[in-house]
Fold this protein.
Amino acid sequence: MSATLLAIGHIVLALVGAPLLLGIINRTKAVFAGRRGQPVLQPYFDILKLMRKGAVYSSTTTWIFRAGPAVTLAAVLTGLCIVPFAGAKPLLAFQGDLILIAYLLALSRLMTVLAAIDTGSSFEGMGASRELTFSMLAEPALFVGLLALARVTHSLSLDGILYKTGVTGWSIGAPALVAAALFVVFLTENARLPIDDPDTHLELTMIHEVMVLDHGGPDLGLVQCGSALKLWLLGILIVGVASPNLADASLWLREGFAVAGLAALAVLVGIVESFMARMRLMKVPQLLIGAGALSVLAAILVLG
Amino acid sequence: MNDLISILVVVIIMSDFLLLAAGSLRAAVRIIGFQGLALGVLPLCAHQNGLTLRLVAIAILVIILKAVVFPRLLLRSLRESGAPRTITFFVGPVSSLLLGIFVLGSSLWWGYLLPLPERSPYTLAVPMVFFTIVTGLLLLVSRRQALMQVIGYLALENGIYAFGVFFAQSESMLIELGILLDVFVGVFIMGIMVFHISREFDNIESSQLSTLRDWFRGSRRPAGGGGTLR
């Protein structure tokens, strides 16, 4: 019973804490740029502000446009029920749930894309096309990486994979490679900087932002909630892959490690965004295939 | 020791991937130099029966040649040829990377077909060797500049050398030195050739070198003896 309570507590923690990661990223970027920056809690204010507004819908849109943000959010929330936080049992765990997590991410992306296309704007169609191209290339990196870890830990469940990779022989190298590959996937899925600039509104370079341009009010709030939760979800995936085996540590140590890991990841993203320019669109597939190569290498390491 | 070798093997494989993805000649030269460094350290870890003076001497020689002398020579001819610094491709970096992943998979298969003679703990050694050799071949045929072909040749040679490290632990020093000297002379000559080609003609793109003849069918001779395409 208490394990269930703990799992629910972790989901509540995600709901409460996810926008904070965005705040930390923004604050890190501000510090590196020598600015004071917006308040760390600004993403919360933004979401609350949007939630209080009314919605405007174009008459060309159908129910898909309205369902988009909600389904996206729901898919990510379901994902949060599967991915373990701090090594504790997640709400749902079964053999093969690492495939489900990839598909849930795909579902959230699909609904965003469909909602974007539903507006009938060619501009949003362009963003949708880019998003799908890049996510198609990011998927092998995610899948092969997770399968490599499944091979190391002899488990097809995320619960058995994350926080469980011991440190003997090859299994030192493989999780590090997979973590590096997942970091690229993380940046891609969350539309962070070297791949896509979340702050830009220059039409030639936008990928993710362009798809949510027509959402407003509560819908946009849901979209931002969803993207913050996606950041959190993929973040705990990376922290779990990169973490040592903490099965014997005390509860508070594990919780502290996971939270600190997430914060460190956010700071890392902020640093990457401060030091890197946006990549040329043509270069992005190269980076993603490079990440795929890292995953394949990790898989080969654990096979050999 | 075993872990160290594993890490070195992974580093060499990654440097092959980097070579396939490289977009600028300068970066490619740096990567091949780095790969040479990793290869130089390899015999120090791969030996099974004690460090000998011979091994250390070979390691130092290899490091000096592959990690210092070759990159310097290449960077020099790059600087003096005044050629454009970006690599031009017959097969682009994305396709090269995909091919690389495919080749890595197949080299694993070849590695199973052709294991090292004695039961060796380094299961990835032979795949790494094949992968490096094929990467060199890929670079040789898929890049346009003559300098990239020198780098491809170096990668090819690196693979063969790595094979020697694992396979022929007892081969005589004379042969090792002979091979090294061969490669040295090879790179030296190629560096000079690249320099001369670029001084004689407008560019060092090997695809343009097919129009070297004096007589040019159907049109007048292109100015400067070679193509003027950049």
Q: What stands out?
A: Chain B has seven helices and no strands. Residues 224-230 of chain B have pLDDT under 50 and may be disordered. Chain B touches chain A at residues 2-3, 6-7, 10, 13-14, 17, 21, 93-94, 97-98, 100-101, 104-105, 108, 123-124, 127 (CB under 8 Å).
